Amino acid sequence: MNVQESWEKALRYTEIVRPRIQPLLTFEATHLPYVFLAESLVNQGDTVVRKGEVLVEQPSLVLPYNLPIFEGFDFEKRSSLEQDMLSAFLLVRGVRFPSLKYQNKTESLDIHQGRLKNAVDQYSLQLQKEENVSTGLLMGPEDCWQFSVLIFICSQVLRSADGDMRKLLEDFRKRNRK
């Protein structure tokens, strides 16, 4: 499957079951933990459980507008898609990430013995019981999990944009009063 097909498949089948309720931090790095669930391609009837975290932070050097940095998404393992090509690929499709560094770290990769629906119910209930407002729960195709996680991150950035603008304006006004 080529990159375009993977992207379209992820768009079609990715579902954010439980978004992160806690907003992104405006002036600090934000940890975005997630649980990604997918039907196993190897063991029919089982579910792949990928737990990870994306760290969204200011890069150590100033980046041009619309030039995000993606690390740890393993795109290069699946295809020859490199950093610059990924940014261009997304930009051409109208997907714009702020010029920040997005670093993915997979914490665990397990198999849940049971159907996807059962796994979704179990992890939804677990996050609810823990009153976990920072972890997102999403499901999508296992063979294009990277794009599913990017879709999740993009949705979280969009949800925080309005509040971020208010905080930036408040900060600007405070600094100009001094």
Gap between N and C termini: 57 Å
Number of helices, where a helix is a run of at least 4 consecutive DSSP H or I residues: 5
Average of per-residue pLDDT values: 84
Number of strands: 6
Q: Helices and strands, in N-to-C order? A: HEEEEHHEHEH
Strands across the major sheet, in which order?
A: 1-6-2-3-5-4
Percent strand:
15-25%
Radius of gyration: 17 Å
Describe the 3D structure:
The chain is of the alpha/beta class. It has one domain (3-177). Helix content is 40%, strand content 25%. The protein has five helices and six strands. It has helices at residues 3-13, 75-78, 83-92, 116-129, 145-177; strands at 15-18, 30-39, 47-57, 69-71, 101-112, 136-139. Strands 1-6-2-3-5-4 form a six-stranded mixed β-sheet, sandwiched between helices. A hairpin with a 7-residue loop joins strand 2 and strand 3 (47-57). Helix 1 packs across helix 5 (145-177). The model has no long low-confidence stretch (mean pLDDT 84).
